[in-house]
Specification:
Layout lengths: L2 H4 L5 H10 L4 H8 L3 H8 L7 H11 L9
Helix pairs in contact: 3-4, 3-5
């Protein structure tokens, strides 16, 4: 399937890189989003991906663009 048609694919590895580059812990990002840190862990380990609302909150919490956390 052509990725251009399905949109960007979330990457837990890129999320972790973006978070650590900003010197933030999972707990700090979760607190900024008002969610449990277990969600950040699951996203970084590619067990789950954030839904649309949480993806936008995540980008705000990190102060980054979608391209930093997608492939």
């Amino acid at each position: 399937m052509d990725r251009a048609k399905t949109g960007p694919v979330f990457s837990g590895q890129k999320l972790k890189k973006a978070r650590t580059a900003r010197g933030l812990t999972q707990a700090q990002v979760a607190a900024r989003m008002n969610i449990g840190s277990v969600y950040i862990s699951q996203w970084e380990n590619d067990r789950h991906a954030p839904n649309g609302v949480n993806a936008m909150l995540l980008l705000r919490a990190l102060g980054c663009e979608m391209e930093e956390v997608t492939e």
